[in-house]
Amino acid sequence: MAQAIVVRALGGPDVLKMEGITLQPPGPGEVQIRQAAIGLNFIDVYFRTGLYKSAEGLPFIPGKEGAGVVTAVGDNVSRFVVGDRVAYASADGAYASERNIEIAHLVKVPDGIPLETAGAMMLKGMTAQYLLNQTFKVGPETTLLFHAAAGGVGLIAGQWAKALGATVIGTAGSQDKIDLALAHGYDHVINYRTDNFVSQVKEITSGKGVDVVYDSVGRDTYPASLDCIKPRGLWVSFGNSSGPVDAFNIGVLAQKGSLFATRPTLFGYIATRPALEACANSLFDIVQSNKVRINVNQTYALADAAQAHADLEARKTSGTTALIP
């Protein structure tokens, strides 16, 4: 019998309970996979607490991201066969030892990338891909600020932005995390707990500000993030680990220098098969080039998902984290 984390009530990490589940054969357009690793992401917390609503209602199996091996194939499936190594980043129900999944979500994993790495990097790595290459096209002339530089997306984005030639500024909350970010592409890292990141950014940029701020923190970094941006620059709000940003008067963007603002999601950038494959292949290519290293800094047994969530929310984790069935 397959094992899964099932959420039957919204709340804290303690609502994450392991249960046995009966897995039916894969339906048309689906495959069944035995999972090697499942990625831990802050979006999982949002669904667990009810900030984001599960399409299934209660109960539901959380998680968006994983990797494994195809063990069975449903009708009308020609793209995948039993034995394929596959990964995904946008399919609800990841916290399970085995699962059925629509092939629209899947990509094949190159042989040179371990499944544990793929399972923990797809959502974060493809997020970094679209942020740096699509939402704002980063290049040698770009100076950027990335909050949560030592987080899962942050460590990938720092290396990737440096590979694109940018000047990369980050924020982090401890000396250990600052050192980690500096080892992963960042030119400057500001301790947001002890320093005013706005004044530090202004000093680093000689008063000019940055072209773009990437902000997954939310409440704690808004509106100060806007004060870091040069006129006609871009604020990218792609998460809210400290809580959601309250509704704001759009006129503040004019007051701060004719700024642009966007609230993108990965799922909006990989909504078609060509877009998914292009994004995933871009990630695979840069990882295999060794310009971006994926470090799985924490692993937890799937049964210990509650502890993993508690550590994530307490900001005790860094980089990528994998749950192992």
TrEMBL record:
Q: Which CDD domains match?
A: QOR2 (cd05286)
**One Gene Ontology cellular component:** cytosol
* Annotated protein name in UniProt: Quinone oxidoreductase
What are the protein's UniProt keywords?
Answer: NADP, Oxidoreductase
Its taxonomic path starts at: Bacteria, Pseudomonadati, Pseudomonadota, Alphaproteobacteria, Hyphomicrobiales
Please indicate if the UniProt record lists NADP as a keyword. yes
The Enoyl reductase (ER) domain, residue ranges: 11-323
Which InterPro entries does this one have? ADH-like_C (IPR013149), ADH-like_N (IPR013154), ER (IPR020843), GroES-like_sf (IPR011032), NAD(P)-bd_dom_sf (IPR036291), QOR-like (IPR047618)
| Pfam families in the record | ADH_N, ADH_zinc_N
Q: List GO molecular-function terms, semicolon-separated.
A: mRNA 3'-UTR AU-rich region binding; NADPH binding; quinone reductase (NADPH) activity
Q: Which domain of life is it from?
A: Bacteria
Keyword Oxidoreductase (UniProt): yes
